[in-house]
Amino acid sequence: MQELRKLQKLIIGMGEALLCYGAEISRVEETIQRVADHYQVEEVEMYVITNGLFVNLHQQEDHTSTRLKYVPSISVNMKKLCDINELSRRIEQENLSIDTALARLQEIQEAKNEPAWELVLSSGVGAAAFGYLFGGSLWDCLAAFVCGVILQLFFCFLDAKQVNISKVLLDIIGGLLVTVICVVLNRIGVSDHLDLAIAGAIIPMIPGVAFTNGIRDIVDGDYLSGCVRLLDAILVFCSIAIGVGLGLKL
After folding, report:
1. ∠79-45-32 over CA atoms, to 5°?
2. Which end of the chain is more exposed for a tag (fewer CB within 10 A), N or C?
3. Nearest to residue 197, comparing CAs of 153, 150, 232?
């Protein structure tokens, strides 16, 4: 019974981590099933949605373990997502013990995220690159780069200060901030096309992973989770648009 509880902890932990780091529902369900099959669980039942999972493991006649885990928020982290997938493959290929797998899972969860300067630089480069793809000039790309850097610095500052703010309001403020900076840069002659600079600068805020996973969940038949993710992505789009509109009006 003790081993079954350890296995339940491992499965719930991996499922929770996958949801937190932005995996689609089918990936979470497949990982849980593969790990349970590898450790020879007789019967596994699961119910996974975007913000929680329910897992029931049944081993022999009287050994059953059931857990419900609430996942309050999702923060996309592709590196940790890949690490969890790698752990799942290692469990099957290297026949890891439950204790070893638990220890590795804890290492992944406690690993530090990318340093702030990498996020800031990536945001700026991404904004400038999309500004160029949209047909902007080099000056438009420079304006988008500056906006992307300032935007990510703003988000990092809020995160460091642990400011609790509504996601909708945060997206509106982000869109407003980017637009005001682009307008100022355009007025002083740094950028040639205001619309292209703004379009590139807001790209770091676009929830592309959530939108894509929402479509994939719907295609896979997970209609509830897919609709929730699509609704969340659309809400972000609308919030950014409101912020941009306010910035242009002001």
Report:
1. 20
2. C
3. 150
Tokens of 150: 């300032």
Q: Is 237 helix (H, G, I), strand (E, B) or coil?
A: helix
Question: Torsions phi, psi of 55, nearest 5?
Answer: -130, 130
What's the rounded Cα separation, in Å, for the pair 136 and 199? 10
Q: Is 60 left (phi over 0), alpha (psi -120 to 50) or beta?
A: left
Residue 23: burial class (beta carbons within 10 Å; 0-12, 13-18, 19+): buried
R_g of the chain computed on alpha carbons: 22
Best CA proximity match to 170, nearest among 152, 183, 148: 152
Give the residue among 10, 20, 11 at the shortest CA–CA distance from 78: 20
pLDDT (tens digit per residue) in 105-162: 999 988 888 788 888 999 999 999 999 999 989 999 999 999 999 999 999 888 888 8
Q: CA angle, corner 122, sides to 118 and 123, nearest 5?
A: 120
Strands annotated E in the chain: 43-49, 52-59, 63-70
Query: Which phi and psi angles does 171 have, rounded to 5°?
Result: -70, -40
188: three-class secondary structure by DSSP: coil
H helix runs in 94-115, sequence order: 98-110
CA-closest candidate to residue 14, choices 77, 75, 73, 85 = 85
DSSP track, 5-17: HHHHHHHHHHHHH
Average pLDDT for the chain: 89
Q: In what order do the strands lie in the sheet with 63-70?
A: 43-49, 52-59, 63-70
